[in-house]
Amino acid sequence: MTLKTDLLETSFALICDRETDFTNYFYSNLFKDYPEVKPLFSDAQMDEQAKKLFDSLVLVVNNLTKPDTLTSALKGLGAKHVQYGVLPEHYPKVGGNLLKTMAVVLEDQWTDEYAVAWTEAYSAITEIMLDGCNYPPEVLNLET
Ligand code: HEM
Fold it and tell me: Where are the domains of the chain?
């Protein structure tokens, strides 16, 4: 799939102006909407975690035109997530939360076009991260 590079870059530039709002809302809303994922973060230092998450989004957006770099970084990140206890079924939750956070933080600057671009991008990111994981087929059912 060809990602909508221009839309991803333009919207992310707006989000970079509001990094703290973004990460604060991202984690508080994740734990509100999906309390079941909170225990996964029990050992995490949340300030650092927020910075790492944001930096990984920067990496994604900066490497949209370099699929090899992007793929190897995301496969490695996916493999680490297995060790954190993350399951495939958690990815759509985090993706929904990501889109919601972007919409809330950008308010009237958020558009339907941005939403489509990020939905496609997150789905591609998930596919690559899970590709780095070797989960058995029975846990790879993302419909649930
Ligand atoms: C686009 C998808 C995702 C991205 C870009 C992302 C990004 C990151 C990054 C950069 C780290 C830090 C890795 C390190 O320390 O080297 C991390 C850690 C972590 N992520 Fe994600 N993540 C994603 C999806 C998820 C999902 C779906 C979950 C499940 C709820 C999750 C839960 C965690 C947990 C539990 C940690 C470890 C926290 C700790 O104990 O330090 N992530 N993630």
Answer: 5-133
- C-alpha torsion angle, residues 107, 112, 113, 116 (rounded to 10): 110
Among protein residues, the one with the nearest Cα to ligand 1's atom 37 is 84
What does the alpha-carbon distance between residue 29 and residue 18 come to, in Å, rounded to a whole number?
A: 16
Summarised one tens digit per residue, pLDDT across range 18-44 is 999 999 999 999 999 999 999 999 999
Nearest CA to ligand 1 atom 22: 53
Per the structure block, which two tokens stand in for 59? Answer: 């990496």
pLDDT digits (tens, 9 = 90+) for 3-19: 999 999 999 999 999 99
Q: State the distance from the centre of ligand 1 to the C-alpha of 81, rounded, in angstroms.
A: 6
Instruction: Supply the Cα-derived Rg of the chain in whole angstroms.
Output: 15
DSSP tag of 63: T
User: In which band, very low, low, confident or very high, does the pLDDT at 132 lie, cut at 50, 70 and 90?
Assistant: confident
Return the SS3 of 20.
helix
The superfamily CATH assigns to domain 5-133 is: Globins (1.10.490.10)
